[in-house]
Amino acid sequence: MKTNEELQRDVQNAIKWEPQLQAAAIGVTAKDGIVTLMGTVDAYYKKIEAENAAKNVDGVKAVVEEIEIKYSNSTRTDEDIAVDALKALLDSWNVPQENIQVKVEKGWITIEGHVTWNYQKEAAEKSIAHISGVRGVTNHIKIKAEIQNEIEKHNIKRALSSNWTLHSENILVKVDGTKVTLTGSVSSIYQKDLAEKIVWKTPGIWAVDNQLAVEHKYTPVL
User: What is the DSSP string of 165-222?
Assistant: First the structure.
């Protein structure tokens, strides 16, 4: 596997390549596949960008995120943020905003309610991430699919195997009603997240339990 120094360097480079993060002061440490991100950014979405950049690096097994948000303008109230959040949800055509409730406390937004598809849940969170003054987002939106047909396990496995970046032979799929559980192993956090995203596209799913283990296999270049 990669040395701690190699992993640290690769994550640092990944963050540097993100246009939104070039001016951010983010430090990186790495130990046994666990990467810790430290420092400050001036927006919540930049914190998420840094985390995602680290997750996509081969060899990263876990990310510890200790980045602080420091806004230059700290005069925004929770009411200001709530107004912007409701407008952002309304403006996002992917989000059925009539089914979603918003709560703001000390800059932290909690969204609740229900949607039909997981992409709608993700779109709701993404739409409010760029709001000035936001310090964090908790997404409690539930999936309640309108389709009640039985979930076909072989359709999920076929969808996983069709993606060339996944070694789907190492992924086990279990279907229990409207819930799908993934077990087995992948070689990166990126692949773990990708497998879950693929499964969520299956009609009728209400929940995905992603238990995939990240087992990095690194072959040094001679």
Answer: TS-GGGEEEEEETTEEEEEEEESSHHHHHHHHHHHHTSTT--EEEE--EE--------
Nearest-angstrom CA–CA distance, 68 and 190 = 24
Nearest Cα to Cα of residue 168 among 145, 151, 187 = 187
Closest CA to 116 of 205, 25, 40: 205
User: Cβ(182)–Cβ(169) under 8 Å?
Assistant: no
Whose tokens are 């709530």? That residue is 82
> pLDDT digit string (tens) for 28-62?
999 999 999 999 888 899 999 999 999 988 889 89
**How many CB atoms within 10 Å of residue 138?**
11
Contact criterion met (CB below 8 Å) for 39 and 22: no
The model carries a pTM of: 0.76
Report residue 148's pLDDT band, with 50, 70 and 90 as the boundaries: low
The angle, 0 to 180 degrees and rounded to 10, between the axes of the packed helices 4-16 and 44-55 is 130
Strand pairing category for 62-69 and 100-105: unpaired
In the block, residue with structure tokens 């409730």: 101
